[in-house]
Structures are given as C-alpha cells and as structure tokens.
Design a protein that fits this description.
FMN_Rdtase-like_dom; single chain; Rossmann fold; 7 helices; 6-stranded parallel sheet; FMN binding; 18% strand; globular; alpha/beta; 192 residues
C-alpha cells in the first residue's frame, strides 16, 4: 500500500471538543497503517462567514490547500439541531471540486444525545454533490459525555468504530472513483 495523506477536519470550536478527540483517534489509526496525517482544527483557522466575492478571506487559502493535498479527508462534526455544525459548513463553503472531487471522505458525528445519524446523512449529501467517494462505514459517538474522558474514548465499541474509520481512510485512499454522480453534475456552485 503506497503512503497516503489523511487530513482530519474538526468541525467544532469548543475548547474541550469531543469531536477533536474522535478525529485525533481516527488519525492515529491512519498513522498506524503508515499514512501521514494532519489535523485541521477549525478553532485554529480564521474563516470569516463565507462570501463568494471574497473567497480568499482570512485563512481560506491555507485551509483549502491543506484539504486539496489530502488523499483522504475525515470530516468530524458535533450534532447541532440534527445536522452538522455551522463552522464546518462555513469551512466547506471555502472548498469545492478542486479540494474534494475524487477524494475519499470519512464521516464522524458526535452527539450529546443518542441520535447523531442525520448529521452524517447531511454530510454524505454534501460530499456526493462534490463527487467524493464516501466511505460506507461511518462513525458516531452518541452521548459523548458518557463515552469520552480525559481526552480519550472510553467505550471499546465506539473506539473500534472510530479506529475503523481511520483505517479505511487509508485503505480506500486511492480507490478508483465512480463516474460523476447526478448531484455533482447539477452542482454549479454559489457563483450567482
């Protein structure tokens, strides 16, 4: 297996982010398989609210360049009102086909409650529109405050799911993508 580069995007701004713990664990699993990794913690980027007239605002170019350099991208989000975080949506708006098309993407959702699935489905739709190959396995950490302590995942089943996500980000990093999906051919972007 050739060396691949995996980036993990932490879509949370919380200081003690459970999402960060999950993404860090998935990246560690990717490293264990020989990948190089990079943590893109949105807390550390200056990404103003996206304005299509100012695509290079703040750290937008640096963020997009890091995503573009990846073979696989792990997107991690807390669940807010049944969907993914606004800060992750904003970061993704600074990216497009140049950063995501034909890339392997893994999804991780972290919830205070017990049902983080809709956020994963929403992210899956976004990735499909960008013509990514989304790993079928997805990881969720429900009731995160009960399963994360001292910066680590304490539930063995959840840790295994998160670890598997990181491993599959490496295993499928260079998968031959399918032909463009209908959503991606209809996604003209936000230029109007």
């Amino acid at each position: 297996m050739s060396e691949s580069h995996v980036v993990g995007v932490v879509g949370s701004l919380r200081e003690e982010s459970y999402t960060r713990v999950g993404i860090e664990r998935a990246l560690a699993a990717a490293e264990e398989l020989g990948a190089t990794t990079e943590l893109l913690d949105l807390q550390e980027f200056d990404l103003p609210v996206f304005d299509a007239d100012h695509r290079e605002a703040g750290d937008a170019v640096e963020f997009a360049d890091s995503v573009r350099a990846a073979d696989s991208i792990l997107l991690g989000t807390p669940v807010y009102h049944g969907s993914y975080s606004g800060v992750l949506k904003n970061a993704l708006d600074y990216c497009g086909f140049d950063e995501f098309e034909h890339k392997t993407v893994g999804l991780l959702a972290v919830a205070g409650g017990s049902f983080p699935i809709t956020a994963l489905e929403h992210l899956r739709s976004v990735c499909r529109a960008l013509n990514c190959w989304v790993i079928p396995h997805q990881a969720a950490i429900p009731k995160a405050r009960n399963h994360i302590a001292d910066g680590r995942i304490t539930d063995a089943d959840i840790e295994e799911r998160v670890t598997t996500l990181g491993e599959e980000a490496v295993q499928y990093a260079n998968i031959e993508p399918d032909p463009a999906c209908f959503e991606s051919t209809e996604n003209v972007g936000a230029d109007d």
